């Protein structure tokens, strides 16, 4: 990584810290949750990690065989990480482990969708090879 | 899958970077293959073998540790 690339990475991380820090400050100081700030901080964090790995803020660019392998494996692992995180967010935000006490139905549907997305996609994609 | 890429590469006086350039991949890819962290595709295996001037069967050692019958 050359000097310019390092500067861009540091800037991206500083932007993330600024937005996330400001959102956190507003939450603690005024009790308001800024959805825009939360979303933008995730955009900045995504920019930072894409830049670190691919030297491209969108994760694109020229890739060789190993890069594509890393991408594929990361997509698989990332899916299961997302599944666990969405479940954790549901149970922590609702403050219960009992499904009958949960009121956030959209989030329950999202967690449920994480369970069926891969089997359905595999079923449809397998038809391509029949 | 084990391989003898490093051995043949050094015989050809090629660095990992030069072999990578010849095969149109990154140096990290060649390094990962040499260290058995990544098994290359058949196409890349053929490309590496061609660049090193050896056959695939010489370069890559199958699961039995490369021992041949007879």
UniProtKB/TrEMBL annotation, chain A:
Protein name as catalogued: Uncharacterized protein
Membrane-crossing segments per the record: 7-25, 31-49, 77-93, 105-125
Pfam families per UniProt: DUF2178 (PF09946)
Upper classification of the organism: Bacteria, Bacillati, Bacillota, Bacilli, Bacillales
InterPro entries the UniProt entry points to: DUF2178_TM
Keywords for this protein: Membrane, Transmembrane, Transmembrane helix
From TrEMBL, chain B:
Any one Pfam family match given in the protein's UniProt record, by short name: HTH_3
This protein's UniProt keywords: DNA-binding
PROSITE patterns: HTH_CROC1 (PS50943)
Domain HTH cro/C1-type stretches: 5-59
SMART domains recorded: HTH_XRE
Alphabetical list of InterPro entries matching this protein: Cro/C1-type_HTH, Lambda_DNA-bd_dom_sf
Keyword check for Methyltransferase: no
Keyword DNA-binding found: yes
Name of the protein in its database record: Helix-turn-helix transcriptional regulator
Organism: Gracilibacillus caseinilyticus
């Amino acid at each position: 990584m050359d000097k310019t690339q390092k500067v861009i990475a540091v800037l991206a991380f500083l932007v993330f810290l600024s937005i996330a820090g400001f959102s956190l400050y507003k939450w603690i100081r005024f009790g308001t949750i800024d959805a825009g700030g939360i979303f933008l901080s995730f955009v900045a964090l995504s920019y930072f990690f894409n830049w670190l790995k691919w030297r491209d803020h969108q994760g694109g660019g020229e890739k060789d065989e190993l890069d594509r392998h890393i991408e594929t494996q990361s997509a698989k692992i990332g899916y299961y990480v997302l599944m666990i995180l969405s479940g954790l967010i549901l149970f922590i935000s609702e403050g219960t482990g009992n499904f009958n006490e949960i009121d956030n139905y959209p989030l329950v549907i999202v967690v449920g969708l994480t369970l069926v997305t891969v089997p359905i996609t595999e079923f449809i994609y397998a038809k391509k090879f029949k | 899958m084990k391989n003898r890429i490093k051995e043949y590469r050094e015989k050809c006086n090629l660095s990992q970077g030069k072999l990578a350039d010849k095969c149109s991949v990154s140096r990290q890819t060649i390094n990962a293959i040499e260290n058995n962290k990544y098994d290359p595709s058949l196409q890349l295996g053929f490309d590496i073998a061609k660049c090193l001037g050896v056959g695939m069967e010489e370069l890559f050692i199958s699961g039995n540790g490369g021992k041949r019958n007879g």
